[in-house]
Structures are given as C-alpha cells and as structure tokens.
C-alpha cells in the first residue's frame, strides 16, 4: 500500500492511508490477530457473522418490498 505526500501535507496523507486501510479491512484483521483464536472459535465467529449478514440482507429486502 502506498500513499503519496503532496506539498508536505502529512495530515492529508495520513487520512488517505487510514481510509485505504479501513476499506481493505486491515484494522479488523489486526484486531482479530492480536490474540490467538482457536479454530472452533473462529468457525463460530464466522458462522455468527454470516447469520448477521443474512439477517441484514433480509431486513433490507423486506424494507425495499414494503413489508
């Protein structure tokens, strides 16, 4: 990942870097890798995330269809 600093404006470059890292999901990945996660815990977390995404999709679909 590379960010160019223009006109010695480091603050703007930092904001751009943080935005890129957020978009790539690096902050979330660093947080999960901070501690060891057992494979069973990882599967449970991923399953819960999938359920959460599915319910969100259903909510949006119901809202769009007007139920």
SSE topology:
Blueprint (H helix, E strand, L loop, with lengths): L9 H15 L1 H8 L5 H27 L2
Walk me through what this model shows:
The chain has about 70 residues and is mainly α. Helix content is about 75%, strand content about 0%. The chain is built from three helices and no strands. The longest helix is centred in the last third of the chain and has 27 residues, at about 40-65. It is flat, with a radius of gyration of 18 Å. The N and C termini lie far apart (about 45 Å). The mean pLDDT is about 95.
Low-confidence stretches: none
Helix and strand succession? HHH
Largest sheet: none
- Bin the helical content: over 70%
Number of strands: 0
Number of helices: 3
Quick check: average pLDDT?
A: 93
What form results from the Cα inertia axes? flat
What is Rg?
Answer: 18 Å
Secondary-structure content class = mainly alpha
Q: Give the DSSP E fraction (strand runs of 2 or more residues).
A: under 5%
Task: Report, as a whole number of angstroms, the end-to-end distance.
Answer: 44 Å
Salient structural properties:
3 helices; 75% helix; 67 residues
Quick overview:
By secondary structure, the protein is mostly helical. Helices cover 75% and strands 0% of the residues.
């Amino acid at each position: 990942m590379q960010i160019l600093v223009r006109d010695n404006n480091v603050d703007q470059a930092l904001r751009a870097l943080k935005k890129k890292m957020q978009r790539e999901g690096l902050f979330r990945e660093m947080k999960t890798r901070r501690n060891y996660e057992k494979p069973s815990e990882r599967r449970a977390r991923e399953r819960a995330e999938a359920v959460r995404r599915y319910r969100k999709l259903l909510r949006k679909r119901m809202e769009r269809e007007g139920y």
